[in-house]
Write a structure and sequence with these properties.
Elements lengths: L1 H25 L4 E17 L5 E12 L3 E7 L12 E8 L2 E6 L2 E12 L4
Antiparallel strand pairs: 1-2, 1-4, 2-3, 3-6, 4-5, 5-6
Length: 120
């Protein structure tokens, strides 16, 4: 009876190992790129009374990879430090969002444009 129990534990350990390895293999690795520029763009209006409104600005960045250029923008106009040009970044794409990591901090942006880069 003791031998059957060891066999069950080995089977469970083997199955768990296979599932873990499959999950690690299936998760896409992060992409790497560089921020090459930033500009402030209008991304809404703040209404202050009946007739007065102020334009709200968001940062929009250009991120280059080896093959693609992404234009990404803050989702909401909020206080956020500026990420300088020539900063190396790591990112993952999730539908129309880019989850980006720069200088040890995490950010989330909307992808507003993409372009293929020539590979000459």
């Amino acid at each position: 009876m003791h031998k059957g129990r060891n066999m069950n534990l080995r089977s469970i350990a083997l199955i768990a190992g296979i599932l873990f390895a499959g999950a690690c293999w299936a998760a896409p690795p992060p992409n790497h790129g560089t921020i090459v520029s930033m500009q402030s763009v209008e991304c809404g209006q703040k209404h202050e009374g009946k007739k007065k409104s102020t334009a709200l600005l968001c940062q929009q960045y250009v991120v280059h990879t080896a093959t693609t250029e992404y234009q990404v923008r803050q989702q909401k106009p909020e206080e956020q430090e500026i990420i300088p040009a020539n900063t190396a970044v790591e990112f993952k794409l999730d539908k129309s969002k880019m989850k980006l990591k720069a200088n040890g901090k995490k950010y989330e942006f909307l992808v507003v444009g993409t372009s293929a880069l020539s590979t000459q």
